[in-house]
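Progress narrative, Year 2. Work on Radical SAM domain/B12 binding domain-containing protein (DUF4080 domain) from Arcobacter acticola advanced from sequence curation to structure prediction during this period.
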Amino acid sequence: MKNIILTTLNSRYSHSSLGLRYLLANLKELKNEAEILEFVINSSVQTIAEQILSKKPKIIGIAVYIWNAFDIGELVRIIKKVSPQTIVVLGGPEVSYTPLRVNFDMADYIICGEGEVSFYNLCRELLDGNCTQARTIHSPKVDFEAIALPYDDYTDFDIKNRHIYVENARGCPFECEFCLSSIETKMRYLDINIFLDEIEKLWQRGARSFKFIDRTFNIKISYAKAILNYFLAKQEDYFLHFEVIPDNFPEELRDLIKQFKAGCLQLEVGIQTLNLDVAKEIRRNLKLDKIKDNLKFLSQETHAHMHIDLIIGLPSESIESFGRNLNQLYTLSTGEIQVGILKKLSGTTLDRHDKIYGMVYNDAPPYDILKNDLISFDLMQDMKRFARFWDIIYNSGNFQKTTALLFSDGKVYENFYDFSKWLYKRSESTYKISLDRIAQFLYEYLSNSYDKELIANAILQDVMSVEGRSFPAFLKKIIPETYDFAQKEVSKANKRQQLRKE
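Result:
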């Protein structure tokens, strides 16, 4: 039995919560009385409550994020009904800023801000029986170099089965209005030698998959170089994920990135828009020449796999402008282009645009935009389906030869928009569509514009590049099963990137 349970609902089983491990690491003399229990969204909330309460905790600390806020609200209600004497403490970005748009009224305490110190102080007072804390605790920024680091609290199970989340910095120097990171523009860094010592300990324990949560990994070049050099010296395979700004790749950094072999390096590249007027409206600094040059470099001279972010629904950006952004990015990069829908997070300053641009958002998580003065509700719904189909067809890497036919005239946005409209009408769904059904839909749609055997050959090569796939039945009448579709062997970790470079 444990007095303190730390828990959250991760978005995937392979994810792990760095925040919970920070809380555990900083519980001092209370640490032996605490345990982490992690779950996954879309699990039975009652079963989660049952497993937590089976530990007979006096305090439950729950990390709340945009993806789990609704489920956490329900979890809190069940826990307090079943075990009203158990104290529930909420923390995390989703409860750190007002307004709270999910009902957390039954929680006993809410910690707003960084909780490493505040959570310990609260637990100590509660367990001592003399708590004087207010229900809402506004926690100040912690001294990043004074708190205990969390990396020893990754278990051997975590290291074997999950991504290991790490951070060398907190804050972001930019002021993009849609992002919570823009609230703290002053950067705080952990001493690089201390940080690399922690990474080395994880490495010695077998960790090989590291996801850096630093918002701007390449803003401080000396630190970025030290981290890249550390991993380049390793002889074994590994996977690294960094969030990078697209306009800061000096030659010294380029020389290092070029040395990483395929499958090792994934870069999250925040673009959001290429429209300078829109960027200015949301206080996002764009250096287009540098962005274009760096995307070209990363695509043509490195093995780094890229996730390039674009947003639909930004204030003052029309669908036509978004379409031009997508068309241009398609020509600039071989990476995935992640099409996101604008969300209004509590704590950001996006609401200053609401009246000017008629911005209307969903009140429930994920607080996505419903319409604005340039994009109607119906069109926004079309674009949400566009984003979903784009992800499962283009970003999946499963149909690169086929989509090349779809985009052969350079009208990437226009052609995929027409296809996504047709596909939704044809499939009546955006989820649980099998690879073979997608292939058949692509064949059916493209048959009106291309030679059927040409389309069939492209689809066959795409489908058979996926390990374990069988010859699609609908193609057997068009192409003999003896067709030579031999493909290069591609490692699973880097299949998408390899296919785009062939």
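Residues 485-502 have pLDDT under 50 and may be disordered. The longest helix spans residues 377-395.
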